[in-house]
Every structure is written in C-alpha cells, then in structure tokens.
Amino acid sequence: MKYSDIHRNESRAQVGRLLIIDDDDVLLSALPWPIKRRMSYMTIDTADTPEEALRHVYSGDYDVILSDIRMPRMDGVTLLRKLRAIQPETPVILCTACGEEGLRREANAAGAFAFITKPLDPDYLAELLKKAMLQCRLNLQSMAIEKQG
C-alpha cells in the first residue's frame, strides 16, 4: 500500500454523514450544533418526519442515522426496519424520552445499533456516533470482501 492510499484512507475516516430524525422541531434544530462542535467533520441532515427521512436515505448514503422512536404516522421501530432494508450497512441509533424495556428489546430485535434515552448527553452521543461510524465502515469493508470472494 502506498503512502497516498494510507493518507486517503485516513482523511476519509475523518468525514461522515449523519441523518437525525425527530418530530420535535426544537430538538431537531438544536441537536446538530453540539454534534458539529465535537465532530466538525460530520455532515448533518435532518428530517422531521419518517417519510422525509426515507426520501433522504433513498437519495444518499449515511454513515449513521439517529432517530426518535415516538413519532406520528410511523414509529421508530417500523422506520428502523425500512431503513435497514434500504441501507443495511448503516447503523441506526434510536432515542426516546421513555426507556421502557419492551421497546428496547423490540428495537434491538429489529437491528438497532443502540437505544438511548433523552435527554441526550452530547459527549456520550458523540462517542456513540463515532462507534457507529466505525461499525458502518467495517460493514462496508466486509461487504466488499464478500463481493470479491
């Protein structure tokens, strides 16, 4: 491997795309700022409905998706299943104001990367997003290796 390949891979590791989905307009407008402050390389898109989120996902790839679980018209677990069908390699983090255990089990069974409760701690969230981005890259590498073999 040449130095330029290593450098390209290092700089690629310092970029990422995040989609935040929440029907709470205040949270949706406030949350990107503390994330960008901790992860300046992150490009952040937002959606205030599950339908808008699906349009985003159909039109571009994301490294990680953060979604509220309680939304009108479609709950977060149903949305998670749809997102996983479109972009199976992309980790999805579900968050909610209520941390009921049954909901957590359902989210995990549907393939959630993590299930967290509000209010969101910005430092914890940033670390979780970094881990999810790493998982996405590992998933993509694994898929590439499978295609070669």
Report a brief summary of the structure.
The chain is α/β, with parallel strands linked by helices.
Describe the structure.
This protein has 149 residues and is of the alpha/beta class. The chain has a single domain, classed as Response regulator (Rossmann fold, 3-Layer(aba) Sandwich). The protein has 7 helices and 5 strands; from the N terminus they run H-E-H-H-E-H-E-H-E-H-E-H. The chain has helices spanning 3-12, 25-30, 32-38, 50-59, 76-86, 101-109, 122-148; strands spanning 16-21, 42-47, 64-68, 92-96, 114-117. The longest helix is centred in the last third of the chain and has 27 residues, at 122-148. It is globular. The model is unreliable at 1-12 (pLDDT under 50).
Q: What count of structural domains?
A: 1
Q: Rough shape?
A: globular
Report the uncertain regions.
1-12
Helicity range: 40-55%
SSE map:
Blueprint: H1 3-12, E1 16-21, H2 25-30, H3 32-38, E2 42-47, H4 50-59, E3 64-68, H5 76-86, E4 92-96, H6 101-109, E5 114-117, H7 122-148
Parallel strand pairs: 1-2, 1-3, 3-4, 4-5
Helix pairs in contact: 4-5
Task: Give short descriptive properties of this protein.
7 helices; Rossmann fold; 17% strand; alpha/beta; globular; 149 residues; disordered N terminus; 5-stranded parallel beta sheet; 5 strands
